[in-house]
């Protein structure tokens, strides 16, 4: 709903078309309510990052293994590029 409502004119248009009824008083109050609705919620990527860290990186060895595997993948990619395009 926040993408539909930015200001009081949007609320007025939706109210006149019968999408919802405004029982808060003014259209500006309802627009402010929808614009501030998700401000305090954590973003999805922060939640996903914390969940992934707690699930997959619970010990230092898993972090070391992850970066070692990442380094191997990067070096393999570079080796493949030099094989395809030799100097």
UniProtKB/TrEMBL annotation:
Transmembrane segments: 63-84
One Pfam family of this chain: DUF247
Domain of life: Eukaryota
Keyword annotations of the record: Membrane, Transmembrane, Transmembrane helix
Protein known as: Uncharacterized protein
Organism encoding this protein: Cajanus cajan (Pigeon pea)
């Amino acid at each position: 709903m926040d993408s539909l409502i930015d200001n009081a004119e949007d609320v007025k248009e939706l109210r006149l078309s019968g999408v919802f009824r405004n029982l808060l008083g003014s259209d500006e109050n309802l627009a402010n309510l929808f614009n501030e609705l998700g401000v305090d919620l954590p973003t999805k990527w922060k939640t996903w990052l914390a969940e992934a860290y707690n699930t997959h990186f619970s010990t230092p060895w898993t972090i070391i293994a992850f970066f070692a595997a990442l380094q191997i993948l990067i070096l393999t990619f570079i080796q493949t590029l030099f094989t395809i395009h030799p100097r």
